[in-house]
What we know:
The protein contains nine helices and four strands. By secondary structure, it is mainly alpha-helical. The strands form two sheets. A two-stranded antiparallel sheet has the order 1-2. The chain has a two-stranded antiparallel ribbon with strand order 3-4.
Amino acid sequence: MNLPNTLTLVRIFLVPLLVVVLLTEFAGRQVLGMPKELFGAAIFALASVTDWLDGYLARRRRQVTWLGQVLDPLADKLLTSAAFISLVQRIQSAGDTHLPDRIVRNLEQTVARGQEVYEWAKQRDLPIAFGTDLWGPAAQKSQLREFETRAGLDSPAAIIRSATAINAELLKMKDKLGVIAPGAYADLLVVDGDPLTDLRVMTDPRRNLRSS
């Protein structure tokens, strides 16, 4: 594996570390002697640097590969989605974790900015994928919260398309994923309700997902 692809993998591996730092309550709210918020920002900054560096090196060394073209946008999506959902989770749990008001305000501003970027992407018809790399038993329970988080930003149909067809395009597998067709890979989900009118049926699979 070449260096640019290795840097992309490093960015992917940094995502669960970022989630753990943001969502875990450490003693004294510090990690390695640093405030956890600052430590998390440093991880995000490092991951962002790898985003620029892997593309630069791939072009300079002429090492652009199919694998890199798939992994790079996937790594970016995992990083931004995991950070965004972690911030939302921290705001909603601020009362239980005694998060200082100053930090809550900063988090709210960050989330608001993320919502503005989402609207900007919609206005310009940019593809918006779906999914996070939330890691660990506790964090995995929040993976489906992206449906809830995006419900106020987009139509149910557009969000479901993000989770299926757009993700398939991102992985360059639009003929195999996100489509019901002969030879394609597909799981048909039967839910108790209409997700096109109420996305909440997708956030509680134990209650709403019907098994055969």
